[in-house]
Amino acid sequence: MKNKVRIVILAAGKGTRMKNELPKALVSLRGKHMIKHLLESVDKTALDERPIVVVGYKKELMMKELGNKYDYVIQKEILGTGHAVMVTEQTCRDAENIIVISGDQPFIKSESIKNLWEKHKNSDATITITTTVLPDFDDWRKAFVTYGRIIRENNKIIDKEIKDCTEEELKIKEVNVSCYAFKTQWLWDKLKKLDKNSNSQKEYQLTDLWEIAGIENKKIESIQVDAMETLGVNSKEELEILEKLVV
After folding, report:
1. Thinking of the domain 5-132+177-229, which architecture would CATH place it in?
2. Domain spans of the chain?
3. What rounded mean pLDDT belongs to the chain?
């Protein structure tokens, strides 16, 4: 199928800060595994008959809970988001584009995923990212303090991980909310060129691709979505925030 797209859900992590022995994506939110909220939205898009779930920590439990509706790829070592996407290359071999979503973002709506795909496809972008703009980092929005900042310079989009931001960059209110679309022909080649020593986490980070794309003058597009919809969970405190929000 022309422009065939695969959807990849990153769900290999343990989530140490959750203080829970489950894989982070299987932590319960409103009586349901966090990743199942997300997968309901993914399924509604009808963009991919068998979305791909990247599993790692307690992979057998994850696959048992989610069932046989999905394709599974095992990330044997947890070496960052770039590495998590690298391991899906063979499974995505027939796709011209992929959409990548973090498995700990339960409130993303199917409409937003479809909007991301439409913007990516219609703009012929190499990368399309999802952002949100905040009025401040107060109240429930304090969860976004740890998100990467979006820097727009000379019609280019730069996404800097929080640990690599300067004090001035930390004041930026537009943040990356970790939902992306990529042209795969470009992606697979550039993932092999990522350097885990280029960031403070010593991991292969997807966000390092933005700089490569900028240097190559590749087109990077973006869509904006509502902040509540994009909240992720990295700690028990953030989980409590999501439990209370009306989304």
Report:
1. Alpha-Beta Complex (3.90)
2. 5-132+177-229
3. 89
**CA pair distance 178, 205, nearest whole angstrom:** 11
Return the ∠ at Cα 130 (arms to 126 and 106), rounded to 5°: 130
Tokens linked to 88: 């899906």
In this structure, are residues 104 and 52 in contact, taking their beta carbons and an 8 Å threshold? no
Contacts with 121 (C-beta within 8 Å, 6 or more apart), sequence order: 3, 97
Question: What is the arithmetic mean of pLDDT over 226-247?
Answer: 79
Neighbours of 214 (CB within 10 A): 17
Q: What does the chain come to in residues?
A: 247
* Contact (Cβ atoms closer than 8 angstroms) between residue 3 and residue 94: no
Helix axes of 59-66 and 34-45: crossing angle, nearest 10 degrees: 50
What's the pLDDT score for residue 66?
95
Tens digit of pLDDT for each residue in 81-121? 999 999 999 999 999 999 999 998 999 999 999 999 999 99
Pairwise CA distance, residues 41 & 169, whole Å: 33
pLDDT single digits (tens) 2-51: 458 999 999 998 866 656 778 888 888 888 888 999 999 999 999 999 99
Q: Is the distance from CB of 186 to CB of 126 less than 8 angstroms?
A: yes
User: Which pair of tokens denotes residue 102?
Assistant: 């973090």
Long-range contacts of 13-21, Cβ-Cβ distance < 8 Å, separation of 24 or more: 13/56, 13/57, 13/78, 13/104, 14/57, 14/58, 14/78, 15/104, 15/233, 15/234, 17/234, 17/235, 17/236, 18/233, 18/234, 18/235, 18/236, 18/239, 19/236, 20/236
Q: Rounded to two decimals, what is the model's pTM?
A: 0.91
Quick check: helix, strand or coil at residue 54?
strand
